[in-house]
Amino acid sequence: MELTWPLLAALLLPLSFILLHSHAKTGGKDGRRRLPPGPAVVPVLGNLLWVRHHGIDVLRAIRRLHARHGPLLALRMGSRLEVTVSDRRLAHAALVERGAALADRPGFASRDLLGLNAATISTSSYGPLWRLFRRNFVAEVASPARLRLFAPARAAVLAELTDKLRLRNGIGGGGQEGTIVETFQYAMFRLLVAMCFGEQLGERAVRDIAAAQRDLLLYSSTKLMVFAFLPAVTTRLFRGRLRAMLAMRKRLKDMYKPLIGARRELVGAAAPEPQQDDEATTTTLPHCYVDTLLEIWLNDGDGSERALTDDEMVALCSEFLNGGTDTTSTALQWIMAELVKNPAIQGKLHDDVKSTMASTGSDHIAEEDVQKMPYLRAVVLEGLRRHPPGHMVLPHAPAEDMEMGGYVIPRGTTVNFLVADMGMDERAWERPAEFAPERFMPGGDGEGVDITGTREIRMMPFGAGRRICPGLNVATLHLEYFVANLVRAFEWREQEGEEVDVDGEKAEFTIVMAKPLQARIVPRGHS
Hints:
Layout: H1 5-12, E1 29-30, E2 33-34, H2 56-69, E3 72-77, E4 80-85, H3 88-97, H4 110-113, H5 128-140, H6 144-148, H7 151-168, H8 180-197, H9 203-223, H10 231-237, H11 239-269, H12 289-294, E5 297-299, E6 305-307, H13 310-341, H14 343-360, H15 374-386, E7 402-404, E8 407-409, E9 414-417, H16 419-423, H17 472-489, E10 490-494, E11 505-507, E12 511-513, E13 519-523
Parallel strand pairs: 4-9
Antiparallel strand pairs: 1-2, 3-4, 5-6, 7-8, 10-13, 11-12
């Protein structure tokens, strides 16, 4: 949190005497409502003193509090009540069995003041608008038939990614700067740009959009936290931050608008056709996310309908690019790190890849091939169980007071779930700390696990219930496709003097390796 403690005290302590006789314990009775237990509350500040850490230390502090208070933990963050859930059965009861009761998103008083009120799939309240946006994405982007239309972009990104990895080790001359995960991030972002705007842009254009997107995301997650406290006051004290945020949003909008406009003209003229015959060199895609947004009409409530505004289009495109870049590239890094650390598992996966290519007569693994490779899916599932990119999901909120685990969760409370803890539950998994894809094969303790959590929750890397990530099919396809082809093209070995650490974690936009993956990447067929 950027706001320093002296400034926070100067803003809030003059008000503390007003609440001096407020509850000392969150776990006590709040009127007739029995709230979940939690640590003692400091007037006005709430429990900020208990979780004043940064990054991964916040999660560690929350886990220590769970160990003391139980699977339901209530924290006061200023005047806001937040509840975290660490038990998978409670999570299933709340998210699946009573899905609609906890399908809303918490509201933030500062959103309107900051101009962040453009609705997206992830931020919309549970209702007709959310259903419209989600249904559009699932049917028009994430369905198997639609995903096949993006095959040219996947092939082009895979070709570029393998070239960059060859250059990294000086194969073919030269070298590649940056970490392996940064190479993965660029590849995933380039693929999503093509899927979003229907055009495979050059590297410079992709990197410019990525920089603008990341700058805004980083600024929003670090510099705008101050506006959660007394927004009527802080928006006046920190006007410079508002101006900077608006400038960054305009920069991004100026990049998006020509791409959206070009697609509007193309779709309006005729159905777009690929410009090249070769799948790997096709530049214009026959279908993209923007195409679907151009067809959406919103009901304004007075009986009239309208198309999406530019701001709404930009918000939805930003969500699309943000949602699938860091999560997928982070998961890909963790999986490849585990394959480096476990060469026997990598060898078994490579045998599966070779067998599949021999049966198809192809020199690579295509999208339809991954469905025939159960061990590949087991490797990806084990990566998501052992190293979920997010240790929490996006926060939920009940639209009305609800009961959970014998406690009352008041309406509007921010509720979150410790995803990583559920995948490491010793009551659900044998040797949970071990990376063992065989657990998802016949006879393993993970055989038949449903990652949607519909039957029961044993792991929930994409969330569960009504607000489960709509991009689940997109993410799993991308992980299976790239893991298979990276193992097909290269043998991934430990680099001398660079031990791969699969236990160290740090928090960025996702939970990444504390020590980024370094590996010796050897093309298959080379010594």
